[in-house]
Design a protein that fits this description.
- The structure is a single chain.
- With 219 residues, the protein is of the alpha/beta class.
- The protein folds into two domains: 101 residues, no CATH class; 104 residues, NAD(P)-binding Rossmann-like Domain (Rossmann fold, 3-Layer(aba) Sandwich).
- Helices cover 33% and strands 19% of the residues.
- The protein is built from nine helices and nine strands.
- Strands 4-7-6-5-8-9 form a six-stranded mixed beta sheet. A three-stranded mixed beta sheet has the order 1-3-2.
- The relative contact order is 0.12.
- The mean pLDDT is 83.
Length: 219
């Protein structure tokens, strides 16, 4: 297993020094940051906008699949994950265009909760689980709860990373992508729901049916 690390500074130098012209679309393309496009699936008519965010990705993937776009020649080094500092320590000096971080091991696709630290909680002691890890939660709610020394056992997010980052920073023991793990934990007394508004009703009902106290953030 591996993932790519592309150095912007190295790529730019390789292009500019050879006097090549390189045209970059705005972010991922038209549709980026448009809620109706990204969240609701309202696509732009192809005659009005030819290259949308989705079509840009499709074109690149098709070019790679048909080998019209060759990416393997870009690989200039392969580094074990344990030696990641060889890449990130000083990307400007490596001279690499594309670096691959390699790691081994089996991935448990069924695991939805990871433990970030060990901590013992007592039930009926005001133990919280946070459902939702958006910007407002990570920047305002979690820091304030941490300042108040609240007992937080879980933080849940749809994709995991947005919950794991504040979880590590504020020493929350568990990060999960499945809020049922939180609801089924008898040590969790209360659920703080900070997800998108349209999801509140169903999540409140589930939390109440699980016997939890519920607070819903709405700003």
């Amino acid at each position: 297993m591996c993932w790519w690390v592309l150095s912007d500074s190295i790529c730019s130098a390789a292009i500019f020094e050879k006097e090549l012209s390189f045209q970059v679309s705005c972010s991922y393309g038209p549709g980026r940051y448009d809620e109706q496009y990204e969240q609701q699936g309202h696509d732009y008519p192809i005659g009005f906008v030819r290259w949308t965010e989705k079509r840009n990705f499709e074109a690149v993937l098709q070019a790679i699949a048909s080998q019209r776009l060759l990416v393997k020649p870009l690989i200039t080094e392969r580094i074990d994950l344990d030696n990641y500092q060889a890449i990130y320590g000083d990307m400007g000096k490596s001279g690499a265009i594309a670096s691959i971080l390699q790691y081994s091991g089996q991935v448990d696709a069924g695991q939805t909760t990871v433990s970030l630290r060990s901590h013992h909680f007592e039930a009926q002691a005001g133990v919280l689980g946070i459902l939702g890890a958006g910007n407002f939660t990570a920047a305002v709610i979690v820091p304030e709860l941490s300042r108040l020394k609240a007992s937080i056992k879980y933080i849940c997010s749809a994709k995991g990373l947005s919950g794991t980052t504040p979880g590590q920073k504020y020493q929350i023991p568990h990060s999960s992508t499945n809020y049922n793990d939180l609801l089924q934990d008898p040590e969790v007394d209360a659920v703080l729901i900070t997800t998108r508004h349209h999801a509140h009703a169903a999540q409140v009902i589930q939390a109440l049916e699980a016997g939890k106290h519920v607070f819903v953030e709405n700003h």
